[in-house]
Amino acid sequence: MHPEEDTVNFWKVASINQSEDDYWRAYEATRPNYAEDNFLNIIYDYHSFKASTSFEIAHDVGCGSGIGASELATRFAHVVASDNNASSLNAAHRFLVPTPNSKDSDKFTFVICMAEELAAHHEPQSADLVAAAECLPLMDGSAALSAFSTILKPGGTLAIWFYARPHFSEPEYISTCQPIFDRILDCIFSKLINGHGSKRTEGWKKAAEGCISWLDYLDFFEKPGEWEKVVRRKWNNKSTQNTFFTPAACDFELEPISKVTAEEEVIEVEDPSMWERRWDMRGVKDFIDYSFPNVKSLVDGNDEIQGLLKKLQYAMGGEREIRAFKWPIVLVLATKS
Which of 98, 97, 103, 35 is nearest to 72 (CA)? Predict the structure, then answer.
């Protein structure tokens, strides 16, 4: 991290002190697979239900390493991958189009830009679907929704989803292991969040409040007639927190925000098996190490965190004992009017 850079874009200044490709591959190994458990089919079914459905052009906004774009490319003729971080976009390019002669070289377009500025880079009403995974809390939500609306065709689909830290799902380990796991993540993120300037604090506060709100802060009816058929689907929201840290990590107060209206459909499902992961201590440590850029060196050099890791290993029953984990997940779908 670079504390001297005081900016709301805390992810962008978190330059990765290792191979970008190595970081993203390790990151992906600890995260859910979007193709599992019918998740993407929920999006495709929603999109297909409309009379004038097209699967020509999809946008993967805030594409990161390109894993979402690779899945969209199995259903859409062309995928635009965009990110405001050049190093991440380059990693996505290497992943999706390894060589100039790759068979899918014409299937992808890569654009470096902020989501809020997509309309300056693409024709109005040019996209069939806009997907934004794991990135909306980092953005100006109102400006991003406006940009998405501009580039979507009438009847086009917006799909936004977010998940945060996994939670122990077996009852006997929820009370004993989860508090230790949370404390480890709080120790890490408190060092990333606090003491880096007012703009950085503003960025973290906005993102954290968006997460604890389960994306309910997104106002689809701020501009009348822009969106319709809004569906907010939440998994495990009664038993988990959809943040990578608890409020204890922050030196500011967090307040959930809701702009949900009566016109929207809200679906809540308790399903620990959705994207379930089964990890031993090595798997848990990998998630922690790649929860944010450059965390591994922070973890390995911190005596308090090392002590907590030992406590967690003991509470889990030992280094090789495997435990089940569930995820907090929210998926928001909307149709461009």
Answer: 35
